[in-house]
Structure formats: C-alpha cells, structure tokens
C-alpha cells in the first residue's frame, strides 16, 4: 500500500525553490480528490463509495485518479500522514516534552499546544469525522494504525508528565501512564463535541478546562 508524506511532489525542494505551475496544479488536484472523497464518504459512506463516484463527482477519469492514489483506502492513509505531520510539527522546540522547566513554562506549553491542536483538529472537521466515524473497522490494518495513533498520543503525553515529575513541578506520585490515557480520552471527547456542532466558544471553554485540569489537578503542592 502506498503511503504519502509531505515530501511528495518535491514539497521539500519547494521550501527553497517555488513550485512550478505544474507542481502546484498537481498538489491542487490531489487536494480536490481528497475533498471530493470527503463529500462522497459523507453521502454514501466509505464502503458505499467507489472510485467511479469520486472521479465522476470531480469530472476526471479513472486514470487521473490512479495517478494520485492507488485506491480509496490510500486517501485515508494520506489524510492520516498529513494530520500526524501537522501534530508532530506543533510539538517542536518550545513545545517539546522536555522544554519546560517550571510550572509556568509547562502552563504556557499547554496553552500553545491546546490552541494548536484545536486549530488542527477542528478547522477541517471532515478529517476528524473520517477518522472517528468512517475509518474504524474498514480493515484490520487501518484499525491497528488508528490504535497506534492512540498509543502515540499516550506516549507523547506521558513524556510531558514524566518530565514534569522529574523537574519537580508535578506530583511525585503521579501515575503518568494512566494520566496520559485519561488526557487522550478528554481530547477525543472534545473532538466528538466538536463534531456534534458545539459552538466555537464552548469548544474553547472545554479546551481551557482540560488545560486547567492538567495543571491544577496534577501540580506539586
């Protein structure tokens, strides 16, 4: 199965040299195929959608579709890769697990990360809907990959908590592994509320409540 990444189509090269018109059009058409697939999945469900539906809706031939994706499942892999890249990028430098040395710095991290994740996960809610509603159960490999994303989220969060315990600004008796799993559960709950159409102000309040819990609930007294 083909996996895509941000390195596709000379994107890295484009950091130092502008993309050509042909490269821009190729990237645009790939995104148009993904957008059209979202529409078709929403209308017919993943299993009810065929390549013909996506190609026909967009007005392209099957051959054009297959130049970008090997099958409709490949679209989901591409979406997961892109989402993972954005999340990992948001956790760099000052937001890295070992970057905070005080409770105030940790609090600042949580604010930045909370805002970034809300932006990434809620700006295009079709991505969250695809991964939470359509993707589970499509096949064993994809289910395992989604569980792997949960495990990664748990491990990353535990890394922040372990560092806080080591630096002395979080409780020494903190069960970091299970607290991390609880945090993942809260984030997923927030995403689900977002998919239900919860207003932006309510989502921001929920995000703030989660961040406060991650400071006031586990900080060292």
What's the end-to-end separation, in Å?
51 Å
Secondary structure tally: strands: 0
Which shape, going by the Cα principal axes?
elongated
Uncertain spans? 1-16
Give the SSE string.
Answer: HHHHHHHHH
Radius of gyration: 20 Å
What does the largest sheet look like?
none
Q: Could you tell me the mean pLDDT?
A: 85
Helix percentage: 55-70%
Oligomer: single chain
Structural description of this entry:
With 221 residues, this protein is an all-alpha fold. Helices cover 68% and strands 0% of the residues. It contains nine helices and no strands. Helix 1 (21-44) packs across helix 2, helix 6 (125-134) crosses helix 8 and helix 7 packs across helix 8. It starts with 20 loop residues before the first helix and ends in a 5-residue tail after the last helix. The model is unreliable at 1-16 (pLDDT under 50).
Give keywords.
221 residues; mainly alpha; elongated; disordered N terminus
Strand and helix layout:
Elements lengths: L20 H24 L6 H8 L3 H5 L5 H19 L12 H20 L2 H10 L5 H28 L8 H20 L4 H17 L5
In short:
68% of the residues lie in helices and 0% in strands. The protein has 221 residues and is mainly alpha-helical. The longest helix is centred in the C-terminal third of the chain and has 28 residues, at 140-167.
């Amino acid at each position: 199965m083909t996996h895509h990444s941000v390195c596709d189509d000379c994107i890295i090269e484009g950091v130092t040299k502008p993309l050509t018109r042909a490269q821009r059009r190729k990237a645009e058409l790939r995104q148009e195929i993904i957008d059209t697939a979202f529409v078709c999945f929403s209308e017919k469900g993943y299993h009810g959608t065929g390549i013909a539906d996506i190609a026909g809706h967009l007005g392209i031939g099957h051959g054009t579709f297959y130049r970008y994706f090997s099958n409709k499942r490949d679209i989901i892999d591409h979406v997961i890769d892109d989402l993972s890249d954005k999340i990992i990028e948001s956790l760099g430098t000052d937001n890295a697990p070992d970057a905070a040395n005080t409770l105030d710095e940790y609090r600042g991290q949580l604010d930045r990360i909370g805002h970034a994740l809300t932006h990434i996960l809620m700006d295009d809610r079709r991505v969250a809907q695809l991964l939470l509603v359509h993707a589970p159960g499509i096949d064993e490999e994809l289910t395992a990959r989604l569980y792997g994303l949960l495990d990664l989220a748990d491990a990353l969060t535990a890394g922040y908590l372990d560092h806080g315990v080591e630096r002395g600004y979080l409780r020494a008796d903190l069960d970091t592994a299970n607290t991390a799993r609880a945090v993942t559960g809260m984030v997923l709950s927030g995403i689900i509320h977002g998919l239900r159409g919860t207003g932006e102000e309510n989502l921001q309040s929920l995000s703030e409540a989660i961040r406060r819990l991650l400071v006031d609930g586990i900080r060292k007294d």
